Amino acid sequence: MQEKNFTIERQKGSSLVTLSGDLSLNNISDIKSELVKLFSEAKPTDLLIKNAEVVDLGFIQLVRSFNFSMNERGLESTVKFELTADQRTILERSGIKSEY
Predict the structure, then answer these.
(1) What are the sequence ranges of the domains in the chain?
(2) Which residues pair with 54 in a beta bridge?
(3) pTM passes above 0.70
């Protein structure tokens, strides 16, 4: 079994969930499983993506889908990216907001 090279940390007593590490298609299945668990808890969630070694479009689509599904369910959900200057430039040039 491959070791996870990403982390998902939850702040106790808070809606904040931090994702970091390799946030790419290499880990998308495991990341999706964790987001599905969060979704099933039906609690407001604030995702913070920071210290990302790798971020790709598949991950961004997954996070946007999670956020959309939470909002459709009537639950508050936000997403914020804290990225390096290079990562931020790539997102901006791709038309993707760093916060929604």
Answers:
(1) 6-93
(2) 22
(3) yes
